[in-house]
Amino acid sequence: MQTPRIEERNSTVTGPANVPVKQQGVALSILLPVRNEGINLRIMVKLLKAVVEVPHELLVVYDFPEDDSIPVVRAMQSEYANLHLVHNQGGRGVVNAIRAGVDAAVGDYVLIFAADEVGPLLAIEDMLALMGEGCDLVSCSRYAHGGRRLGGSVVGGALSRLANRLFHRLAGCVLSDATTGIKLFRRSMFSALNLEVTFEIAMKAQLAGWKLGEVPVISIDRLYGGESTFCLGPWTGEYLRWFLWGCKRLRRVPPSERPVVRVRAASAFPGTGKGE
Fold first, then answer.
1. What span, in angstroms and rounded, lies between the C-alpha atoms of 30 and 56?
2. What angle do CA 210, 53, 84 make, to 5 degrees?
3. CB atoms within 10 A of CB 266
């Protein structure tokens, strides 16, 4: 696999005065896979700076040089020293963008985030808290513990709800929202999953024995604009494929032996308490 190209740098992402970021104690690498998300990035970068308190870097991963996200990032880099562009050269698509981002990342934890969603910003603190309590993967949930999904494609939303219900109740996935793209994990463990699509992270992590956590979110899809990658035919095929994969492998484990998911909902949902 080709090494991802970090825009305007050689082999290391650098911060102020060309000091390698790793030496600055970066705890968290936030990956933002984009496709013409320039209008969203102007807002999201500012929001992430305000919300994330741990030392972190922002890696905007793009597929093609015409992406309108690129000039926006370059214009903001003088103000945000931790903001970097990463060119995904492994093939178009979210999975290859994630691989390229993880390869370029230096943080101990990696957060896959979306440039067009503001709701999950409130979950980051709780996600990091669960990692600090020993979780290896923390996933957001739109369908349990008070989480909700608002906006976006009606068909896509219905398919997502149905797929997650099937994954959870029939395939044996212990997480309530396997298909969400908002996930936090340990960078050192990522390569063991050998991903093909993003939502298999939940099932493969469970099969590998990772300690799992979940935080509810209110997801507001495509609040400002940008370009959705949802396609009914291909996505339905992938959902079916991984549902069958889960049925074949995850259901072999008796329910009593499946991992218990830690849940934390304090920051976004004050009435629910610190955890479940």
1. 7
2. 85
3. 15
Domain ranges of the chain: 5-265
Q: Give the three-class secondary structure for 125.
A: helix
Nearest-angstrom CA–CA distance, 120 and 261: 19
In angstroms, rounded to a whole number, what is the distance separating the alpha carbons of residues 101 and 87? 9
CB neighbours of residue 175 within 10 Å: 29
CATH placement of domain 5-265: 3.90.550.10
Beta bridge partners of 32: 60
* Structure token pair of residue 146: 């008070």
Structure confidence at residue 128 (pLDDT): 97
Q: Which residues pair with 218 in a beta bridge?
A: 148
List average pLDDT for each run of 10 residues in the chain, which is 276 residues long: 47 37 75 94 95 96 95 96 94 89 96 90 94 96 88 76 84 89 94 77 90 92 54 66 79 84 75 51
Q: What is the pLDDT of residue 219?
A: 84
Residue 167: the pLDDT is 83
Question: Rounded distance, CA 239 to CA 198, Å?
Answer: 11
Report which residue type is found at 161.
R
| Contacts for 244 with CB less than 8 Å, ≥ 6 apart | none
Q: Give me the phi and psi of 184, to 5 degrees please.
A: -125, 130
The dihedral of CA 180, 181, 187, 190: what is its sign?
Answer: positive
Alpha helices for the chain (secondary structure H): 38-51, 69-76, 94-104, 124-132, 154-169, 200-207, 232-249
Q: How far apart are CA 153 and CA 39, in angstroms?
A: 20
